[in-house]
Design goal:
The structure is a homodimer. By secondary structure, chain A is α+β, with helices and mostly antiparallel strands. Chain A has helices at residues 5-14, 21-28, 32-44, 80-88, 114-124; strands at residues 17-19, 48-55, 64-72, 93-99, 105-111, 130-143. Chain A has two domains: 5-44, no CATH class; 57-137, Lrp/AsnC effector binding domain/regulation of amino acid metabolism (RAM) domain (Alpha-Beta Plaits, 2-Layer Sandwich), CATH 3.30.70.920. In chain A, strands 4-5-3-6 form a four-stranded antiparallel β-sheet. In chain A, a hairpin with a 5-residue loop joins strand 4 and strand 5. Strand 4 of chain A pairs antiparallel with strand 6 of chain B. Chain A binds a DNA duplex through residues 1, 4, 18, 20-22, 30-34, 36-38, 41.
Chain lengths: 148, 148
Amino acid sequence: MKNLRPELIELLKKGYCTPRLSRLAAKTGSKATTIHYNIKQMEGDGIVKSYKAVFDHSKIEEGFCTFVLINLDRREYKTPEEIGKMLAKYQQVESVDIITGGWELIVKVRTKDIEEYYEFSKKALLIRGIDRTQTLSSLLEIKSEFVG
Amino acid sequence: MKNLRPELIELLKKGYCTPRLSRLAAKTGSKATTIHYNIKQMEGDGIVKSYKAVFDHSKIEEGFCTFVLINLDRREYKTPEEIGKMLAKYQQVESVDIITGGWELIVKVRTKDIEEYYEFSKKALLIRGIDRTQTLSSLLEIKSEFVG
DNA sequence: TAAATTTTTGAATATAATTCAAATCATGAA
DNA sequence: TTCATGATTTGAATTATATTCAAAAATTTA
């Protein structure tokens, strides 16, 4: 008998959820069929990309969160987009943005703890094309994607 | 006949979604009742906080994204937590973290455009307790919460 | 104003979630 | 190892919900 949680968490992070039409109908005062019609339309228009679960990061081995500011090495002629796409492949990386200001990239990383972050940084950040990085560790998440 | 989209978007941002047990069952090879049991358990343990929709920000008046690094004014004796909680109240603020490094706070902000960001910054960032801010505008979101 | 289009609705159907009792599996004490 | 206890999985029955579809209402266009 295997532990189903890890697999369920991975699937629910990406999708495998669906809107509750009847609840939305009750809340908005419309009929469920009307909600259905409107939501299918939003899905078709690409407004809604997916439905997913929001987790308590501290309870799924993602308790350590950092923002990494990245300066590229101009001599390597790598674009921010190329480097960004490489970083985006890591499952620890929650977001990657190309930015204006003193850095080319900002990356949000979630790991279990500082040790896992160290291992991540060695393989992901010590690469050709990245000149310098500045890691900002989150001490407290006051607000995050989920407001509840 | 009112446009239902704005209301639906607001509700779906926070919740009003539910896992698709039968799909998860098919995917994992377990029975739907087993998935049900396991997910209820995760909900009870506080691992799952909610189920929500993921939107294409560019299609819901949130096309402009910035990261704001904040230095507090020590003379005002406000804690990062106090200032952070004030900022968290704005609906344009996606996340607020207290961080280590050269700044006390990092805030992720989503607005329709640069004009709305300017209005936001005037009322949210020009307050007692905040000394200096550095705004990093996202030019391209290479990866964000949703991977698909 | 009429015609065409979009949106809402109700009724019928199809799917899926939930409940619950029984069976299976895992764990630890004797 | 065996037995007893608790946890997890399962199947059957029920309940709730989503989906389909044709018709009605509302809106837009000509």
